[in-house]
Amino acid sequence: MAESLSLFAVFPVALAPPSSSSRTQCSMQWHRRISVGVGSMHRTFGVGKSRVVASKSALWRGVCRALDQNSEGQATTPAPLEIVYDPQSRFEELAMELNSSSSTPVSNLTLFSPSKVNVFLRITGKRPDGYHNLASLFHVISLGDILKFSVSPSTTKDSLTTNTAGVPLDGKNLIIKAFNLYREKTGTKKYFWVHLDKRVPTGAGLGGGSGNAATALWAANQMNGNIASEKELQEWSGELGADCPFFFSQGAAYCTNKGEVVRNIPPPIPLSTPMVLIKPPEECSTVEVYKRFSMDNTSDVNPEDLLREIVEKGISQAVCINDLEPPAFAVLPTLKALKERILAASRGRYQAVFMSGSGSTIVGVGDSQPPQFIYDEDKYSDVFVSEAYFLTRKENEWYQQPTSEQIEDLAEYEDKTCSIEKRTCE
Questions:
Q1: 123/28 same-domain check
Q2: Which residues make beta-bridge pairs with 353?
Q3: Residue 77 to residues 70, 105, 273, 345: CA-CA distances in angstroms?
Q4: Beta-strand (E) ranges in 324-422?
Q5: What's the distance, CA 271 to chain centroid?
Q6: How confident is residue 266, by pLDDT bands cut at 50, 70 and 90?
Q7: Domain check: are 265 and 385 in the same one?
C-alpha cells in the first residue's frame, strides 16, 4: 500500500554506513486509536537512538529487525528497528521501563508551560551593560505548551523531542539550559527525557521559551525531591533570561530592572476576562526592535501610575502603553496596520488592544473572538489566532491548564457580567 508521508526529524539522525548489506523484515500489527487532544498524530521510525516522525491518522505499532548479512549471505546479529507511534505512548512506555529498573530512581511528570502578556511595558532607561530597564505589568495567560518529563536512563545527557519543526533540540534550547543550570546549582546528577508539545508561537512576545525554561526548572526540582526553594528557582532562572523569574510569581506581577525584579500583586484584572491573541506569520526580532528603539520616542507616564489605575479602575486602552510598539512597527509595518484595523473594527468589544512584549502578537482584551475581517480576507489566512484568559497559580503548585469546562464557565460568567453592566460584548 503506497503512502505519502511528510517527515521531519525529532532526534538527530546520524547513521554510519553499514559494513554489510541489509534487508529488513517486519512484523506489523495494525491498530486504530481515538485521537486525544488536538493536532495530528505521529508515527515514529528509528534505528537505535535515531527517530523520524511522520504524520498519520492511525497507528502502526510493531518491531522490525534489520538482518545484516555477511559476505556469505549469512544473517548476523539483528539490529532492532523500533516503530513507535505517538509521543504520549512513547512517554508511557519509557516510564514503564524506568519503573521496572531497580537501579534508576522512578519519576515522570506532565506540566503545563504557560505564556504571558505585558499589559503595559514602559522602558525607563538604558543600563551601563547595554540592556534597558523596564517597568511592566506581566500576567500569565492560559495559552501554553505541554511538557512531559521523565528521568532518563542516561547518565550523560538530556533528550528533547518536539512536535514542531525548527525548534532546537540541543543545548541551545532553554529547556536543556534549565536542566544544566539546575544540576550546576544543586550538584544533582539526574538527566531527563522531555517531550515538548509546542502550542505557543515563537517570536510572538508571549514568553513561550521563558515559560518552558521555568517549567523545566520546576520539573527538575520535583524529580529531585524539591531540594531547592521556589525563591532559589526564581533567582537561578534569571541566568536563563530576564522573563524567566516572572513565571515563579503567582501569575500577576509588576516587574522592573531588566524584568527579573518581580513584585507579586493580586490579579488586577478579573480572571474571567477573555482575550484574543492575533499573531501574523512574520516575527519581530527583539534585537532588531531594540536597534530601532529611542528613548525620545517613549511615553512619559509614570509606570506606577499605570499600575495604580489598572488596580483601581480596571484595564483600558489608555493604560496599555508599550514603548516597544514604535520600533516594532518600524521593523514590521504590517503589524501597525493590523493593530489599527483591529481597533477600528472593535466597536467597543475590546477594552484594550495592544502589542505584547517586543511583538508580534496583538492582544485584544474583552472578547475571545477576532474581528470578522480576520476570517474574511485572504491576506490574514496565515495568522495565528487563539483565545486566552488570565491565569494564576497557588503557592507551591505549578500552573494548571484550564479545562474546556472551566473556560466555558468563565465565558458564561463574562456574558452575565456584560449583561448586568449593559456593556457591548459582541
A1: no
A2: 364
A3: 10, 32, 62, 68
A4: 352-355, 362-365, 384-389
A5: 20
A6: very high
A7: yes
pLDDT for res 97? 58
d(CA 302, CA 300): 6
User: Which residue type is seen at 209?
Assistant: G
Q: How many residues can be counted in the chain?
A: 426
Three-class DSSP category at 151: strand
Q: Angle formed by the axes of helices 174-186 and 208-222, to 10°?
A: 40
> Strand 159-162 relative to strand 192-197: parallel, antiparallel, unpaired?
parallel
SS3 at position 421: helix
pLDDT tens sequence across 390-400: 999 999 999 99
One domain, residues 412 and 347? yes
Domain endpoint, select from 50, 85, 120: 85
pLDDT, tens digit (0-9, with 9 covering 90-100), for 10-64: 333 333 444 433 333 333 333 333 233 333 333 333 333 333 333 333 333 333 3
Same domain, 16 and 116: no
- For residue 207, the model assigns a pLDDT of 98
Q: Is residue 128 part of a domain?
A: yes
Whether 169 is covered by a domain: the verdict is yes
What the block records as the C-alpha cell of 383 is 495568522
98 is a domain residue: no
Supply the pLDDT for residue 409.
74
pLDDT at 334: 96
d(CA 125, CA 135): 10
Q: Are residues 395 and 299 in the same domain?
A: yes
% of the chain surpassing 70 pLDDT: 71
CATH code of 261's domain? 3.30.230.10
Q: Which residue has the higher pLDDT, 144 or 58?
A: 144
> Domain tally for the chain?
2
Residue 130 is given by DSSP the state: S
The least confident of 43-52, 98-107, 263-272, 276-285 is 43-52
Determine the structural domain holding residue 152 and report its residue range.
108-421
Q: Is 284 domain-assigned?
A: yes
C-alpha dihedral (361, 364, 365, 369), degrees to nearest 10: -110
